Amino acid sequence: MINRDTVTVAVIWIIATVAIEIGFSYTDIFPAAASEEAVIVDDAFDFLTYIAIPVFTFVLVALGYSLIRFRGKPSADGGAPEDGPPVRIHHKWVWFWMVVSSALVITVIIHPGLTGLNEVEEAAAQEVDLVVEVTGVQWAWSFTYPDQNITGNELVLPLDSHVQFDITAVDVLHSFWIPAFRTKIDAVPGLTTEIHANITELGDYDDDVNFRVQCAELCGRDHAIMRSEVRVVERHEFNEWVLAQQN
Amino acid sequence: MTALKPLGRAILFALIGFAIGATFSGVLVELAGRGDELRDLTISFGRFHIGTLPMNEPMIAGGYVFALLGWLFGIGVWGGWAREWFGASVKSFDQHGWKRYFGFSTDHKVIGVQYTVVMMVIFLLAGSLAMLMRLELSDSESNLLSSTDYNTVMGLHGIMMVAVAVAGLMGGLANYVIPLMIGADDVAFPRLNALSFWIVPPVAVLLLLTPFVSGFDTGWTAYPPLSAQGSTGNLLFLMAFASFGLSSILGGLNFIATIITMRAPGMIWSRMPIFVWSVFAASLISLTATQFVAYALLMVIFERVFGMHFFDGTIGGDAILFEHVFWFYSHPAVYVMILPAFGIELEILSHFARKPVFAYKWVVRAFFSIVGLSFLVWAHHLFTSGMSANLHGPFMILTELISIPTGVVFLAAIGTIWRGRLWLKTPMLFAMGVIANFLVGGLTGLYLADVVTDLNFQDTYFIVAHFHYTIVGGEIFAMMAAIYYWYPKITGRMYNEKLGRVHFIGMMVMYNVTFIPMFIVGANGMNRRVATYPEEFENLNLFITASALLLGLAFLPFVYKMVNSWIRGQRAGNNPWGARTLEWQTTSPPPEENFETTLVVFEDPYGYGDPDAKHFEFLPETGQGHAAQPVGGDD
């Protein structure tokens, strides 16, 4: 069970895993995270990746090693090589594999799976500062601020606030997605869905395209351009904007 | 021309059927007093307006049903089958030589070739559509296609590739080899097998007609209310998809019956090749799950044709209901695609590593765990749909559990090649490619099973990359492995090894170079199913387009050599791979009855390295049949 081949693979696997884990810790493929929810999502992504990397390297190293090391020699007439060892099963390996893979699965179910769900719920349970009613219609978004009595196509949000979006659609399915907040939910005709964002960063579409409301559910001809710019501003600027809109 | 007579008759019957059905429905519509409110049909192609027809959707739907019946009766269902229901005698439609492939043959080997060739043509066509999409996406603005045309091209690419993934391995190659591998002379229901194939051409015709009736905007998922409102292209798409479902159900039924009842004497369950197990498991899904998508599609058809409102939330319907029913089939369906791919992968690894399949019984258990769990994970497609949040946790857990049995397949793959004598022929290279690619597909699935990361990734290019890794990197690579593996058996000739390797290396490298950046562009914030996108994503998209075009080029040596070798390739002999399964123990190609004499099976076919191993023995001519009269089996 333990021989030169398994030891070599184990060593290469450890080196590759450590190297890739370190490389990944310096990588960031995500745009700016502008809400508490976005941080939860990105952290979950990172944790899952740290778990996935050793699995990835193990299979690739074992595969690559076999490809190089275990080549058979074709027979003299170019036919199949001679037979390999008649090993049908190694019960200890199988049980080892079952235990490890089950442990990994249970780990990701608990964290970031259930803990992540809990974090998102807790973030949504905080006191709501602002409610925005969102309506999707082919192919535009409209935003109503019921407490401020404003309706328009512009989404302006105050920094350091907890916003609740109440979302519905008029005609067909749409999906409300702000990439900078990492949250998304469908807009369904006849139904009001709800999503929350605890906003932590300033930003606007001109500097970062991920400050946009993007329709993410195919909704027909102009689905691609069904998007609105998002602007996160300081609280006092928001108040000024509200006043300007109300007049 | 006699070879094409059945085809000509079928087309004629289909046209007559369409006229009858359309007239009948038209009269009903008038009697119902709805004739005026239904619009006429505009025929166009892209920017070109061709004309209008005085025909509404109920007439098209009624016409299609009768046209399908006419087509099937014309091709041979009547003469070769249905006549006996009325006490008349039936004729055999089996012809000889190449003519067999153009008629209602009931030989599973002919049907297998018919399926494989048709699916390869659809595969190349759908691949060309992908090239068209990538050209459109090479810059952020609209440059080649209108938004509607892009959506139609995308939807056609999707549904055609789904059809190839569902029926390429199962309908095509499995149809050819399963009866051979279990030592049977044919499938259990040969005429049903033919029927299941001949439903496919009308499906293809309907799909190819959609661009002429303003296309369809919904992608292959056809979510209402959009699919219930849009142009007539939607109706054709829905009818095509539902018909294809029927073909898939019949195919699944046939495999189950065949594997249960037609095994050679002595071929007890635990002696079956692993590929047979995988097809059996996948058939359980296609037999029992496909109805659900058919219901869902039919209900949308009823919305369009009868003006019903199942999914219209504004008047009491429920759009999310469709998503549930749709994915109740369409998630298990991905296991109809990948289970046979796992089977063929392990089969080839064993024969080309000259070692038994590692942990065979665990793999079988894994297959059935996957079948069971596959029915319980569908709602992970709905984490952002607005369904009750109480469902998020349970479906996340169930989805993540399925990675345990899937992991067993990886263990078996590595265990099989470990310390083997690897023979790196083209089928082996593709089978090893499946391991590497599906590894990426499986691990990235983790982020989509996890609810919080899925809230961000749902409907982005991350998803596009993920499912292409599982279905192309996993299943299509396995299908290529299977084609190269059984090519000498089916054609009797050898493919060109050098071009096979060029194909593998080109496909493996360019495939990964094309799809890895899609993960990144998705994480960067690009959503899917769009013809235009913010300029920020332009560089990566241009890179992906260039890689995709090279990936397309990698198929040229494949197409050229597959056709060329069939005519000019070297004679392959009966068993060029020295494999032990039964299909290699008869001539290449096999005779009509598959085996000259009956045979009896003693143990599984993986006795590599064991000098006393004996999978089977041919019996002296006794006229005895197959598993219907088992001599060695215990069941």
Q: Approximately how much beta-strand content do the residues of chain A carry?
A: 15-25%
Tally of DSSP helical segments of chain B? 19
Q: Unreliable segments of chain A (pLDDT under 50, ≥5 consecutive)?
A: none
Oligomer: heterodimer
Largest sheet of chain A: 6 strands, mixed
* Residue share in helix of chain A: 40-55%
Structural class of chain A: alpha+beta
| Spatial extent as radius of gyration of chain B | 25 Å
Principal-axis shape of chain A: elongated
Average of the residue pLDDT scores of chain B: 93
Percentage of residues in strands of chain B: under 5%
- What topology, given as strand order, has the largest sheet of chain B? 1-2
| Helix and strand run of chain A | HHHEEEEEEEEEEEH
Largest sheet of chain B: 2 strands, antiparallel
Descriptive overview:
The complex is a heterodimer of chains A (247) and B (635). In chain A, strands 4, 6, 7, 9, 10 and 11 form a six-stranded mixed beta sheet that branches. Chain A has a five-stranded mixed beta sheet with strand order 3-2-1-5-8. In chain A, a hairpin with a 2-residue loop joins strand 1 (130-137) and strand 2 (140-145). Chain A has helices at 4-25, 36-69, 91-125, 235-246, and strands at residues 130-137, 140-145, 150-152, 155-158, 162-169, 174-178, 183-187, 193-198, 203-204, 212-215, 227-233. In chain A, helix 1 (4-25) packs antiparallel against helix 2 and helix 2 runs antiparallel to helix 3 (91-125). Chain A is built from four helices and eleven strands. By secondary structure, chain A is α+β, with helices and mostly antiparallel strands. Chain B is mainly α and 635 residues long. Chain B is 62% helix and 3% strand. Chain B has 19 helices and four strands. Chain B has helices spanning 5-31, 57-77, 108-136, 147-181, 190-198, 200-209, 226-229, 233-261, 274-306, 319-353, 360-374, 392-401, 403-417, 426-449, 451-457, 461-491, 497-524, 538-553, 556-568, and strands at 41-45, 48-53, 599-601, 616-618. In chain B, the strands form two sheets. Chain B has a two-stranded antiparallel sheet with strand order 1-2. A two-stranded antiparallel sheet of chain B has the order 3-4. In chain B, strand 1 and strand 2 form a beta hairpin. In chain B, helix 3 (108-136) packs antiparallel against helix 4 (147-181), helix 4 (147-181) packs across helix 16 (461-491) and helix 10 (319-353) crosses helix 16 (461-491). Classes of the chains: A alpha+beta (247), B mainly alpha (635). Chains A and B meet through helix 2, helix 3, strand 7 and strand 10 of A and helix 4, helix 10, helix 11, helix 12 and helix 13 of B.
